[in-house]
Amino acid sequence: MARLAQTAGLTDVQQEILATVRDFVDKEIIPVATQLEHKDEYPTQIVEGLKELGLFGLMIPEEYGGLGESLLTYALCVEEIARGWMSVSGIINTHFIVAYMLKQHGTQEQKDTFLPRMALGEVRGAFSMSEPALGSDVSAITSKGVKDGDEYVLNGQKMWLTNGGTSSLVAVLCRSDEGHPEGTAPHKSMTTFLVEKEPGFGEVRPGLTIPGKIDKMGYKGVDTTELVMDGLRIPANHVLGGTTGRGFYQMMDGVEVGRVNVAARGCGVAQRAFELGVSYAQQRHTFGKPIAQHQAIQFKLAEMATKVEAAHAMMVNAARKKDSGERNDLEAGMAKYLASEYCKEVVEDAFRIHGGYGFSKEYEIERLYREAPMLLIGEGTAEIQKMIIGRRLLEEYRFQG
Known about the structure:
This protein is of the alpha+beta class.
């Protein structure tokens, strides 16, 4: 039997890219991931390796120095990277969302300025939509950008920035009432601002502070931060797309492809959990034989493998739908929901197979057990995905009576 989660119909180029990434993961990420994760240490050497492979520019068009690959190729690479260490895939994902938003919505000047350097990994992207008090309610954003001559003055506090410290370009969603009178629907009075900054913590430019890393249960190594704006001045030409009031739609477009990415991460973590479980089951002996020969364990392995396959298939379908230019919010929501839930279940089953040793930090499954829950929340909770899925289904299956 072939390895789980194979993808039919890939080109020779796609297969070559994936083989290169898989080899990098096996040699450069898996051997050091648990040690770096326990130290909460940023994987500098791994990131430099990804830069050399060109992964920071994987979907950036060739005219800007990228590889010009599809969302499917990108998602499959993310799946492989997450199989090694999910935190590394997070470093790539937020960078990719900002590059994607620039490619789809930026002015020509913005594309020319940022995309070539992003393709090289010289400029790293971060994505800032959430705030301390709003959770999934994007319409409740209070951060504000006010026009002042040829600049905008930004004030407010943002939350949950992946790459908040290491990034040098942040796409920040704020309210901007200019040209949008009082009473305008909230989603029509939001603007995405492109904020350049120095990497690091503290005051990284006048009016902008990155307080420090948020200590997390899992998803360590990558820096997750707040962002505080207090009189931050941004040139008017740093409004994404050059026009205010389009930020909500730009961000939702980015989140849509981000959901495919989170689904891919769930697939990768689930694959690794299955690999660890099936390997340990053949090494551990009870009652005179490997536990893999006990029917109860075989049933568990069968369920785990089936979930890995199902999640992978839905993730691939969502990526291909987006690549075709069609609307894919239904498919992306389904893929994100299923992959994250199945990931949690597969990791827990692998944890159970390990018995008491799964509770030990010496075993890799302990790290996966702490990482999987983040996927239940990232890019929208299960409940948000169900709302999206339900609404879209009612659109498609509207009762004609």
